[in-house]
Please model this.
Amino acid sequence: MAIELKMPALSPTMEEGTLSRWLVKEGDQVSSGTVLAEIETDKATMEFESIDEGTVGQILVPEGTENVKVGTIIAVLAAEGEDASAAAAAPAAEAAPAAAPAASSAPERPRPVAKASDPEVPAGTNMIKMTVRDALRDAMAEEMRRDERVFVIGEEVAEYQGAYKVTQGLLAEFGPKRVIDTPITEYGFAGIGTGAAMGGLRPIVEFMTFNFAMQAIDHIINSAAKTNYMSGGQMRCPIVFRGPNGAASRVGAQHSQNYGPWFANVPGLIVIAPYDSSDAKGLLKAAIRSEDPVVFLENELVYGRNFEVAQLDDHVLPIGKARIMREGSDVTIVSYSIGVGLALEAAETLAGEGIDAEVIDLRTLRPLDKDTVLASLAKTNRLIIAEEGWPVCSIASEIIAICMEEGFDLLDAPVLRVCNEDVPLPYAANLEALALIDAPRIVAAAKNVCYRD
Amino acid sequence: MKSASVESAAASAPSDKNSASEDSAGENFELRSLQDRFSESSRFDADSDYLLHLYEQMLLIRRFEEKAGQLYGLGLIGGFCHLYIGQEAVAVGLQSALQEGKDSVITGYRDHGHMLAYGIDPKIIMAELTGRQAGISHGKGGSMHMFSTEHAFYGGHGIVGAQVSLGGGLAFGHKYRGDGGICLAYFGDGAANQGQVYETFNMASLWNLPIVFVVENNEYAMGTAVKRSSAETEFYRRGTAFRIPGMKVNGMDVLEVRQAAEVAFAHVREGNGPVLMELNTYRYRGHSMSDPAKYRTREEVQNMRENSDPIEGAKAELIKMGIDEEKLKDIDKRIRAQVAEAADFAESSPLPDASELYTDVLVESY
Model:
């Protein structure tokens, strides 16, 4: 059968081109790889190769022809044993290029499932005071006892006992096979962790701080977050990337940044940023058990704080569920991580001035618990966000968008954000204090939306 | 940077010695120990049946890629499409020496050949190229993002060099589980200049990971020739700083590749840590479909095709071994039909349902 040679698309955007030159003539023998013609595309002049063996029959589009549409039959090839002249009679009809399929009508976006609430703590459960640091360590130790596949990898996690002592004691219990010190090589060990997760293990990758995870962000986003989707659900990546995030104290701009908004931007990731010990423990355990990649953002300034934790055999909390830290009826303060402490402090001050504030800890930044935020807004009709991070394209911006899109009729005042100043964090003590959020600024914003001063 | 020339001089020094010592921990560390063993016997002893089997695999890749190029030209395949034509002996020679179900493979975006060499159905690969529901990634990955966990083929990665550290993680997993598997991590001469490759070399050697690093040196990183991009163009030497032995292999001869694989894989399986193999090969087509290839001459390409083609080489050898030329023609016909069937399937299967837009973003519901 004669083989029709069609004007090829030679770039992702080419729709037509110029047939600059024929390098074969009618009657020539060609084989796979023979360059047949030169074609000028919108980008460059390209060679058009034969993939078949045969004899050039009729050339239908002469060289020098411009604006030849992709898909037009430009020549006919007689296959082996065929009469070349017989192959000349092919119709020179202009074939339409394969049309890009029209986007089918937009599918229904799946509704999020009803959020599980925190499990009830049975009456009489012993409550113990525990630092966030120890809560995180216990979470890892418990999950490592439970599942052989779980291991911790990172800089100074083993023999040094953790740069911030979060992994203290793990090496002694689990040994060097499961608690692994790495060289200072974030991109590399984030990739090794991600590959190990793809291969079926359950890595916990500790970054000494998330500032250093910038070196590794390619693996977190391009490798870990996207593979399940790109593989049509074949290749999972159950991994936890954890470490301190946000400003510490007087460490300057390169060591002080909140990456919550960066990671929360990415579909395919779970982003958790707990505040107290109970959430740190319960959510880290959930993160380690999750089949999805999780970015778990801790805060150095909170590590040493003591909070109550229920003494349970298995304290696991639901991912994706915000927590009402303080109920109130006049104004909602949404926050997460270290901001929650400041919001609670502000709420106390506001109470003294007759304003009853509700404080919501988002806990999970992706997927964001819109329902809890909007339910609170329905109650208070006024909302502000307190975020220890920059204001532009922040979690605060996202909350404002949600309130606009889905809570517009509930609003009695514009939603305000209380964020860090929009500058790299300065070193000088006075400037640093000026740049970071604090309780008085949260109080001022709350009063503002309540139209009180 | 002055240090570049100093380093390359240092790297070449051990190759001047000729000790076959394998004391990789001591003074006598020899990056050439495997190369020496390989050069004692550099071609795999295959009978005609086995060579025919390898030949068929290579031919399937060649015909598949030619068809993919054609479908691209017809607008049925979109975006980027990187063909493996010319490099077939590398994937076929190496992967034929792996133990399926035990070992793992990972590569970059030029991945069709590695999947075919692993026996993955050409229909579902082609259907992925055309972005159909029946594709191996349900049309959501495309040419560069294909995976088969069933075959322990872990992609298919679009970020140059990322597969090397991910491969380090797969090897880490083999060691952690003690399953006896090794990881084969392919990358190109271009990726060989990425920093994470060396971060991974360091950790893989430090932790004795069971991994074979394979540089498929096809001489051009997109349009940049090796000598314009690389201070050390002998890639097999690049593991020296990490005490990783290197091997330089003719990637245009499938039996040579296979023999090198025997030597390298045995070394890694015995628990000696990583090996770095450089496979010298050549791609006939452009870097991707939209590459005008003005950085090399037509004569250069033609010369490789005529004198070094891995498939023609194997064919000539088979004929010399007494395989009937008619039989080879029949094989070609059969493979062409198989590829045509894959193309028909890829063209006629339905597009993904619109609801697939939202599936597989996450595994669990939160």
About this structure: Confidence is low (pLDDT under 50) at residues 1-28 of chain B. Chain B touches chain A through 79 residues (CB under 8 Å). The first helix of chain B runs from residue 3 to 16.
